[in-house]
Amino acid sequence: MNELPEWCPPYSSQKRDISTNEEVYCICKKPDGGELMVGCDGCDDWFHFSCLKISSNYKELVFSFFCPYCQAGITGPGSLSSGNLPKTIWKRKCRLHSCYKPCSENSKYCSEQHAEEYIGGVLRRVESKERNSVSLTRQMLEAGDLSKIQLLGKQGIPPATREQNSDLYDSLIGRDKKLKELREEQEIIAKKEMPRIEQEMKALKEYSEWLKAVNSRLFDSVEEAVSRKSQKKKKALKRKSICGYRSQLTIPCSVEDFSAQFQEDVEELHDICCRMRCSRHQDWAGTMQDALQFQIESFETSSQRLALLVKIREDQLNSQFHEQMQRTADLQHAPRTEERVQVAQLT
């Protein structure tokens, strides 16, 4: 069980106002007053955006929402088992900073207009004396094919090296806090988040294969006999199978042992739902796979965004490094007149 956020009050099962008998919702336990709310996919209660400290800008970005109590394991699916607790999943936001609409299908933007606006902003951020955003954009438009555009990108700022000036490199690039934070975020995604999701996908696949084998062992022989009778009566036969939902996707025992212990009147065995037509966990495997795939795509998008931000920051620092190197070189080769020395001291 996780701890609740500091701003969230302890859970209360109150459903109606004691004085007015009106239905109450959210962590504030107040009636619906027309404020923006979101429904929890775990406990089915409704919550105000303002009470959850969520900006109303994010109202179109909710994919799957779980309230603080469900995320802490107090209510919802997490309260019934010791498995992984649910988390709220958001749709991918348009890359334009000021836009809070979800991305269009197979795109990183909500529209072509915002794609153009974002790219224009990126070019302006890396603008320098040698690289004018307007002229660079014109060259990209006139390039004609992808290989020429890629060639323009390769003609960027040369990388700074420690061998050129170790003191300047360490103070400007080596200790840059922003670049360090971006690289740390990249490492977390690459070495922690992505392996975790890949492991969960693997566990889901192995468990699904085990469940398929269980259903086959339990019902195939029975269905084969029933099928022969159905063919004579020309009736369609629906395949029988248990629901199979389990909060922890670990295989509890062998197919043979589970089949031997199974009884049709038992609804749960080894924490596995054994109902034949289960409305509560309908298509749980497909939903779980979609959620994991969505997380993979989100982290891949984040990795691409971070790689771009790292490249931009490196270009900015490289530009500053070469500018300072050039200033140092100019001072070293300039005539050392009394006036020049006085100006250098002032600057």
Global outline: extended
Contiguous low-pLDDT stretches (5 residues minimum) are 333-347
Number of helices: 9
Strand content: under 5%
Chain oligomer state = single chain
Quote the distance from N terminus to C terminus.
59 Å
Reading side by side through the largest sheet, how are the strands ordered?
1-2
Helix content: 40-55%
SSE arrangement, N to C: EEEHEHHHHHHEEHH
Largest sheet: 2 strands, antiparallel
Computed over alpha carbons, the radius of gyration is: 30 Å
Got a strand count? Answer: 6
Give the count of structural domains.
Answer: 2
Class from helix and strand fractions: mainly alpha
Mean pLDDT: 83
Explain briefly what this protein structure is.
The protein has 347 residues and is mainly α.
